[in-house]
């Protein structure tokens, strides 16, 4: 292994895995960006049907890799086989979902305002639609080696929008990344698309990611990871002579509020479900419920004790990387020594991996530092006396991906202030259930106010994600034949369009 190579690490054993991966050198990185930029115009002009063919082929190629990619991801991440098989299915389904979106085409939001020469002043012929931004850089996430990585939602939505993609592979799973990249590159080749439509770079450090973010030909960045990493990329993008958007998904503790009546309705099953949501995938999920609001008193005590018992019985797990393991140990030690915080789960052993943990703190001792995300299987319960004070506490929280309420529907009319606070702080609000297990669909929102995401108007999951990599373009008084098909009078793509403000598929 040379100084410019690195290998994936098996987090369960600490062994370096074969083969070594060469860090992408500066010349290759530059060629990758140039190739993406050269492909951008031609790719932007491809039809939705062509992009759909490409994404469908990528899904099939990824599925064909099934055993190999799951085995490699297991070695590199220590995530269990069932979880990775499910993630592979989610990833290929996501590719097919965006293939459908590209093929159907109405995502371009075509609008036509018809001209009126008799009006004073005369009204022009205006037609607008969404168009792709150009080359997008995607940072693969460590915690979803498939669904938020090389062939994940960011890549898929950018490709569906008509943007070439350059992925910065996460160094924790280089082999998985290489296999997924092969599936996409091969699909691009068989679909007759230019080579630069998809590229990948490898780096064990910040150099390549920052170079890509600062590159003048790159038009947007998508990132999932730490707040420090997301903010560093945001700053780099804003310091460019021409700033670009960075869609960063960073930290979230996903508050879950339980009322006394909500706990009574949930019964024992609620504690079991909460423990599973805290500890599933080693708690390394962006929607993991890391902050709970639980009433003081016997009902709350019994619920937390039942949850802690379940967590104590959950086997310790291996976390994704040594860095994440260190951060988890430091974060849980900070909780243990914090004034006012009490451990409810048993004292964890330090040598058996990451043991799921549950802590509690009285609401009066809850300080902003206790809101910091501790990535892994741990949660903090804030014990409140009166549900009225929870709305104030929730309003004081940072932006979140999700916020959940467990209450009796009958009491909702009295909880208006709390409901408003939950909606104000999160991108997705849940009534009952737990926020882990994100459905990939048309209505889902996986976003939220800062620092859950850097641009709170977007989502990185679901079909809305496509708009992040587009801008609006209006054509004024253009000859019909010179317009993109989406805006032509005959509506040759049969799109649902807004014509003078009303939805229609009719020609104009
Ligand atoms: P990370 O450290 O943020 O790394 C993610 C990617 O960004 C990697 O490719 C990394 O490059 C790059 N990067 C990080 N900092 C950078 C910087 N300052 N400049 C340029 N590039 C930078 O995330 P991670 O490795 O997955 O895990 C670390 C922590 O992130 C976790 O402990 C957890 O707190 C958080 N995390 C949160 C979520 C979530 O969904 N909320 C998901 C994953 C991780 P290199 O690795 O090559 O240096």
Give a structural overview.
It is a single chain. The protein is of the alpha/beta class. It is built from 13 helices and 19 strands. The chain has helices at 26-44, 48-64, 66-77, 81-104, 153-161, 174-190, 207-214, 227-238, 260-279, 298-313, 322-336, 387-395, 416-425, and strands at 5-6, 21-22, 111-113, 126-132, 136-139, 165-168, 198-201, 220-224, 246-249, 256-258, 291-295, 342-343, 357-362, 378-384, 400-406, 426-431, 470-476, 497-499, 502-504. Strands 12-13-14-11-10-15-16 form a seven-stranded mixed sheet, sandwiched between helices. A five-stranded mixed sheet has the order 17-4-3-18-19, with no helix packed on it. Strands 7-6-5-8-9 form a five-stranded parallel sheet, with helices on both faces. The structure holds NADP nicotinamide-adenine-dinucleotide phosphate.
Topology overview:
Layout: E1 5-6, E2 21-22, H1 26-44, H2 48-64, H3 66-77, H4 81-104, E3 111-113, E4 126-132, E5 136-139, H5 153-161, E6 165-168, H6 174-190, E7 198-201, H7 207-214, E8 220-224, H8 227-238, E9 246-249, E10 256-258, H9 260-279, E11 291-295, H10 298-313, H11 322-336, E12 342-343, E13 357-362, E14 378-384, H12 387-395, E15 400-406, H13 416-425, E16 426-431, E17 470-476, E18 497-499, E19 502-504
Parallel strand pairs: 3-18, 5-6, 5-8, 6-7, 8-9, 10-11, 10-15, 11-14, 13-14, 15-16
Antiparallel strand pairs: 1-2, 3-4, 4-17, 12-13, 18-19
Helix pairs in contact: 2-4, 2-6, 3-4, 3-6, 4-5, 9-10, 12-13
NADP nicotinamide-adenine-dinucleotide phosphate binds at residues 139, 141-143, 168, 170-171, 203-206, 209-210, 224-226, 228-229, 232-233, 249, 251-252, 286, 323-324, 327, 373, 375.
């Amino acid at each position: 292994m040379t100084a410019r190579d690195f290998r994936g690490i098996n987090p369960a054993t600490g062994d370096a895995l074969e083969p070594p991966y060469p860090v992408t050198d500066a010349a290759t990185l530059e060629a990758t960006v140039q190739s993406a930029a050269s492909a951008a115009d031609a790719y932007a002009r491809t039809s939705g049907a062509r992009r759909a063919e490409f994404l469908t082929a990528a899904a099939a190629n990824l599925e064909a890799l099934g055993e190999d990619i799951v085995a490699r991801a297991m070695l590199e991440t220590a995530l269990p086989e069932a979880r990775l098989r499910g993630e592979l299915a989610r990833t290929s389904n996501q590719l097919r979902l965006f293939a459908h979106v590209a093929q159907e085409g109405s995502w371009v939001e075509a609008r036509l305002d018809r001209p009126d020469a008799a009006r004073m002043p005369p009204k022009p012929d205006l037609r607008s639609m969404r168009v792709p931004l150009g080359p997008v850089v995607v940072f693969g996430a460590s915690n979803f080696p498939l669904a938020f990585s090389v062939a994940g939602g960011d890549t898929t939505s950018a490709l569906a929008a008509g943007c070439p993609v350059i992925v910065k592979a996460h160094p924790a799973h280089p082999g998985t990344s290489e296999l997924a990249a092969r599936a996409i590159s091969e699909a691009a080749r068989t679909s007759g698309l230019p080579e630069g439509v998809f590229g990948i770079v490898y780096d064990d450090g910040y150099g390549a990611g920052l170079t890509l973010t600062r590159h003048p030909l790159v038009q947007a960045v998508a990132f999932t990871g730490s707040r420090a990493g997301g903010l560093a990329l945001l700053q780099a993008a804003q310091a460019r002579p021409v700033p670009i958007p960075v869609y960063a998904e960073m930290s979230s503790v996903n508050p879950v509020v339980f009322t006394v009546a909500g706990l009574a309705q949930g019964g024992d099953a609620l504690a079991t479900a909460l423990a599973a949501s805290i500890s599933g995938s080693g708690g390394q999920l962006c929607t993991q419920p890391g902050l709970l609001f639980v009433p003081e008193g016997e009902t709350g005590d019994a619920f937390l004790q039942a949850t802690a018992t379940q967590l104590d019985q959950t086997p310790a797990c291996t976390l994704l990387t040594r860095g994440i393991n260190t951060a988890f140990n430091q974060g849980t030690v900070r909780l243990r020594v914090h004034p006012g915080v009490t451990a409810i789960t048993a004292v964890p052993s330090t040598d058996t991996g990451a043991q799921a943990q549950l802590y509690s703190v009285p609401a009066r001792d809850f300080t902003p530092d206790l809101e910091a995300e501790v990535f892994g299987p741990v949660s903090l319960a804030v014990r409140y006396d009166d549900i009225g004070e929870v709305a104030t506490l929730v309003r004081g929280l940072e932006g979140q991906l999700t916020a959940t309420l467990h209450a009796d529907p009958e009491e909702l009319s009295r909880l208006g202030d709390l409901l408003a606070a939950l909606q104000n702080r999160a991108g997705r609000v849940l009534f009952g259930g737990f926020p882990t297990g994100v459905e990939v669909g048309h209505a889902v929102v996986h976003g939220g106010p800062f620092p859950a995401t850097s641009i709170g108007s977007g989502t990185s999951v679901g079909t809305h994600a496509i708009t992040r990599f587009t801008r609006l373009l209006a054509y004024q008084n253009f000859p019909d034949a010179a317009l993109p098909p989406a805006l032509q009078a005959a509506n040759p793509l049969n799109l649902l369009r807004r014509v003078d403000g009303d939805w229609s598929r009719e020609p104009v």
